[in-house]
Design brief:
The chain has 139 residues and is mainly α. It contains five helices and no strands. It is found in: Endoplasmic reticulum membrane.
């Protein structure tokens, strides 16, 4: 791991794995309780469709949507960061801190832990803004 691109690649894979894990959490709860909202899924396991989603599944879906709102800008800023040659020394701490913050945010979201979820969210946002500042300084 020598270049900002190496760190961006690593963090991108870790964030993908984290988001995939949220999907697994949803499946785990649905299959474990044999409760599916989609009629075809319920029918596949011989159950009647549920009127509403399980709370744990809904919470995981909200965490996943929150990731989409935050990780997508990370990917975009990360690519621009690498392409512009913004501070190589700051790349690893920024990319890694963002990845850790998003992971902690997800754990806290699923476990319903406040204020830790908000603190993790804020840490990730600070990283995004700092990445943007470094890109602007480079330009």
């Amino acid at each position: 791991m020598e270049t900002p691109l190496d760190w961006l690649a690593l963090c991108s894979v870790l964030l993908f794995a984290k988001m995939f894990a949220i999907s697994l959490v949803q499946g785990w709860h649905r299959i474990g309780r044999r409760r599916f909202v989609n009629p075809e899924d319920a029918g596949f396991v011989g159950a009647a469709p549920a009127a509403e989603e399980l709370e744990a599944v809904s919470r995981a879906a909200r965490a996943w949507r929150n990731d989409l709102e935050n990780i997508t800008p990370f990917f975009a800023l990360g690519i621009v960061y690498v392409m512009t040659g913004a501070s190589p020394a700051a790349a690893m701490p920024l990319f890694l801190t963002f990845t850790i913050a998003r992971t902690v945010h997800t754990v806290c979201y699923l476990a319903q832990w406040q204020p830790w979820r908000t603190i993790a969210y804020a840490a990730g946002i600070v990283c995004l803004f700092w990445m943007g500042v470094n890109v602007l300084r480079t330009l």
